[in-house]
Amino acid sequence: MSNLPSDCDRALAASGAPAQREAQPEARPAAHPNLVLCTSILSSSLAFIDGSVVNVGLASIGRDLAGGGADLSWVVNGYLLPLSSLLLLGGAMGDRYGRKRILLTGIAVFALASLLCALAPQLWLLVGGRVLQGVGAALLLPNSLAILGATFEGKTRGRAIGIWAAAGAAAGAIGPLLGGWLIDTVGWRAIFYINLPIAALAIFMGWRFVQLKPGGKPAALDPFGALLASLGLGCVTWGLADASAQKHLTLAAGLALVAGILILLAFLWTERRAGEHAMLPLKLFGSSGFSGLNLMTFLLYGALGALMLLVPYVLIQALGYSAKQAGAALLPFPIVLAIGSPLMGRVAGSHGSRLPLSIGSLIVAAGFLLATRIGDGGYAATVLPAMLTIALGMACVAAPLTTAVLSSVDGSHTGIASGFNSAVARGGGLIATALLGVVLTARGRALLPPFHAALLVCAVSAAAAAVCAFIWVSPTNGGPKADGR
Length: 485
Fold this sequence. Notes:
This protein is mainly alpha-helical and 485 residues long. 76% of the residues lie in helices and 0% in strands. It is built from 18 helices and no strands.
């Protein structure tokens, strides 16, 4: 899940071509469309499953490799950082060099990185493997979804995206449970070994059945912009993680934060000069709807990323759950999301996205408040109501957000808009995880007070997301009369 439900990437497939600008659509293959769909599901599942499984294994990794709070946060952030900053570049590379080629390259990189993670004798090598996994995911994820969008059209595209989203939800449900069982019976290294046969099958099917022909004028690449975005985000993330773990702003953390902000400002300057050839054309932010939706996404998915990391960690470390039990505790979330998202998608398509996004975010905030009771009772009385409430709220948000993002810009920019929104969702999780060092450094029952404080912050963040949606999303955005603004 990359710490997030697969629905946060639905717009990538619906747009048909992430990061695509002037390139023409690739020719649709006549043969084996269902096998192409299976290839897309297999390859994207590598990116989705690993995040949630690693969350369940974080406590075991910390014990085995002697990792502290800030160090453990990098097991998650090492993956999210390149995925957040390189996602748009990965889509543009597919447009320029061929989506099939970049997809297979991304899967191979992810597989090699998984092997490095599985064999890592020290924490820094595991983090290095996670960074490499993030690079592979940034290559494979947008291109697997672009291939899906290019293979199907009309009603068959909607059906294929629905099957892909359902498969992602199933992976979200099974992944933590399977991962917890593997951790309890074999060890945490097995959660990385299991990627190898999945990757091998995805490579074979991609090589054998994906037959897309190159389009017209290739998309422009912006590697310097991607480098600046990665460095800037990396500096900010490290500074926040260090300050959180130390419980105060150290000189090194302050310098890292200042450097990160300056580099990100340089990134914006270079993107402005690059114009339409930029990784992120800044004129998109002339749409208040687009800007508001991305701020809402950052706040809401940042809070969700913190939840998906903290809940299994606290259940294991503070409340004595096994890894398998902690994985099972997350099971209601993807089930409710899978059932509720399609229903809310139809509501948004008929009546606009503003109210579902606003009300759904408020329900999520209420769920975070309910989660502050975790530790004061059993699973059924504390964890389950919170997870069900948060899942219900996210079901109200996920599909309408896709509709709203695609409606907030003109048709020629839907690919870049959806890719950027997916990157923002990961970026929210990245920043949130960086701030959790203060929680991860605690042990036993001492975890509960900072955990509850983090949940209150998440509730405020989700409520702020509701305000953003209500203020900046047009009542008709995503509805039958959406004007793209």
